[in-house]
Amino acid sequence: MSAVYDRVALIGLGLIAGSMGLAMRQHGLAGEIVGTARSAETRDVAVGLGLCDRVTETAAEAVKDADLVVLAVPVGAMEDVAREIGPYLKPGATVTDVGSVKKHVIDAVSPYLPEGVDFVAGHPLAGTEHSGPHAGFATLFVNRWCLLIPTEGARPEAVARLRALWEGMGAKVDEMDPEHHDLVLAVTSHAPHLIAYTMVGVADDLRRVTDTEVINYSAAGFRDFTRIAASDPTMWRDVFLTNKDATLEILGRFTEELFALQRAIRTGDGQQLFDYFTRTRAIRRGIIEAGQDTEAPDFGRGTTRE
Amino acid sequence: MSAVYDRVALIGLGLIAGSMGLAMRQHGLAGEIVGTARSAETRDVAVGLGLCDRVTETAAEAVKDADLVVLAVPVGAMEDVAREIGPYLKPGATVTDVGSVKKHVIDAVSPYLPEGVDFVAGHPLAGTEHSGPHAGFATLFVNRWCLLIPTEGARPEAVARLRALWEGMGAKVDEMDPEHHDLVLAVTSHAPHLIAYTMVGVADDLRRVTDTEVINYSAAGFRDFTRIAASDPTMWRDVFLTNKDATLEILGRFTEELFALQRAIRTGDGQQLFDYFTRTRAIRRGIIEAGQDTEAPDFGRGTTRE
To answer: Among A212, A265, A293, whose Cβ lies nearest the Cβ of B223?
Structure first.
């Protein structure tokens, strides 16, 4: 495949940017990949692992002459980065990001971008509970969705080119508006993460159930929760603070439903429980049929990692 | 390995009993394995898959001359089975079960067991979201815990023999009293399952987020929840109805914590969120160090299934 961009700048070198670097190199999607991260150690690791061709100390240097700039820092750090790089962006460049929240990022970044630069926000729905430059792998995005949210005024050809990059890395691409994105993700990702964090915290608090027991006897349910609750604390703090309204709305719905099921347990209404559990099974079947997961007990995770 | 029991009767032929049958045959732990299930189709499948040597139409026939009787039916069906088999149990036989709740099962089954029969309740902490005779595999219990709850009067030699069977199938064995078991499992399994069911139900209800979107864009958090929420509805209805007090207590704690985190989101208290998420990460590390899961993105699931 010929390069989609001559030069790509990765701002932040964690799981997502690192995986993008490896995938772009594997498929020859970028002429040169320049990376930067605040920590010198991360920059050294990134070069050592081949996540990018070279690193710079600052984001301002990294974006010089870049055709595509990828903002891959925690959502709460996007505004500072945008302020720093704004004056150094090449005319005609495209700026994108990989944050889990879109309305906030667009509001925070857009004011700093000059005329003639296209901002096409993005969100690859892929990840693991690991973070940092060591966590990346080239096949992370294969058969996963990447949602693109073009901002007002972004040229269609800039959107098409970014789409080609993501498709080149194996992703399926869809477009969405920012408010709808934030609501959908509140349901499918943000609320579930807060719930998992909460349940793991409750287990930790219970003094009658010693830590060793909780750990030794962590059957399927709790074990899966702990994996979710091991995700990067900085990233998730920022997600909840910046997608506040949608997350709180979904959590309100969740609590309402939970109380109804608690009442069914208390009153011994087995039929209500059975019907509810039967209904939720169907969603799982839908996910498997949509190819977002597999029937196999390893969920296909083992097959997408190199 | 020489047989631990001359004849084993499996009452119910789902995921757990089927896996026991395959594991016992693979390791030569039982002279003969007799199985039974209410459905003729299940019995046919079980013989076809080699889960047992032969099947009987009734539980009463299955337990004849059995040295070990394994009750592997939903918790809510245990009492009926005990009533049926009580008169046909061989003197000196051991009765065990594989239910997820222990106090209720012991109370329901014990009254029907004659003198001279040892009841050692059990709970293998292993499973998948699949159910039925097709779901079983011989390595399901390898390196997993099986908790044994000997009832009053059970002879130590009967407990030791059942322990030897589980260890022969690859499990680690621990003993516990029924009340403590039910509390620990409410934390590590029962409450997490109800929470996952609830979250999946909420997603299903939201008309603004179409089904296709919820399914297509089910990122890690929600996708893991759907797997948990795809578990057998009958089994889980019975678990909640029979471990009511401990489950409701843990759910009460959960709601309290969730409200505290919701308030932190609403007031923008990023430090509280960050500290909480950092703490829950440590539990995950503990689980990995305890060998109950792996760092690998497939959780080691792929490595334990044949």
So the answer is: A293
Retrieve residue A195's tokens: 């719930």
Co-location of A171 and A186 in the same domain: no
Q: What is the DSSP string of B45-112?
A: HHHHHTSSSEEESSHHHHTTT-SEEEE-S-GGGHHHHHHHHGGGPPTT-EEEE--S-SHHHHHHHGGG
A112 and A157 housed in the same domain: yes
What angle (nearest 5°) sits at the alpha carbon of residue A124, between those of residues B301 and A164? 120
Instruction: Return the higher-pLDDT residue of A304 and B206.
Output: B206
Closest CB to B218 among A188, A234, A258 = A188
Sort out which chain B residues have CB atoms less than 8 A from A199's CB and list them: 191-192, 195, 254
Looking at the structure, tell me whether residues B17 and B64 fall in a common domain.
Answer: yes
Across the interface, which of B127, B197, B277 has its CB nearest the CB of A277? Answer: B197
C-alpha A100/C-alpha A95 separation (Å) is 16
More confident residue, A259 or B207: A259
Nearest CA in chain A to B266: A244
Among chain B residues, the shortest Cα distance to A291 is held by B216
Number of domains in chain B: 2
Report the residue of B16, B226, B231 to disrupt the A interface, i.e. the one with the largest count of A CBs within 10 Å. B226
Q: Residue B1: pLDDT above 80?
A: no
**Same-domain pairing of A26 and A74:** yes
B-chain residues near A230 (CB < 8 A): 280-281, 284-285
Summary count for chain B: helices (H), strands (E): 14, 8
Same domain, B23 and B42: yes
More confident residue, B54 or A291: B54
- Residue A132 pLDDT: 92
Domain assignment present for B211: yes
Nearest to A199 among B226, B240, B254 (CB): B254
Q: By C-alpha distance, which of A178, A165, A167, A164 is closest to A142?
A: A167
Q: What is the pTM of this model?
A: 0.84
B273/A189 Cβ within 8 A? no
* Phi, psi dihedrals of residue A28, rounded to the nearest 5°: 60, 40
Whether B10 and B80 map to the same domain: the answer is: yes
Rounded to whole angstroms, how far apart are CA atoms A214 and A205? 11
> Which chain A residues contact residue B294 at CB under 8 A?
none
Same domain? For A169 and A48 the reply is yes
Q: Which of A119, A154, A176 is the last residue of a domain?
A: A176
Q: How far is CA A137 from CA A15, A282, B29, in A?
A: 8, 32, 44
Whichever domain contains B135, its CATH number is 3.40.50.720
Give the pLDDT score at A295: 54
A174 CB neighbours in chain B (<8 A) are: 216
- Rounded mean pLDDT for each run of 10 residues along chain A, 306 residues in total: 92 97 98 97 96 98 98 96 98 97 98 97 90 94 95 96 98 95 92 92 74 74 83 93 96 95 97 93 76 49 32
- Domain assignment present for B205: yes
Distance from CA of A35 to the nearest CA of B (A): 26
Which one of B215, B254, B285 has the shortest CB-CB distance to A202? B254
Chain A / chain B CB contacts < 8 angstroms: 327
Q: Which residue of B has its CA nearest to A147?
A: B217
Question: Is residue A187 located within the same domain as residue A149?
Answer: no
Whichever domain contains A251, its CATH number is 1.10.3660.10
Last-in-domain residue among B176, B199, B219: B176
Domain that holds residue B142: 5-176
Residue B248 has pLDDT above 90, yes or no: yes
DSSP H or E stretch at residue B160:
helix B156-168
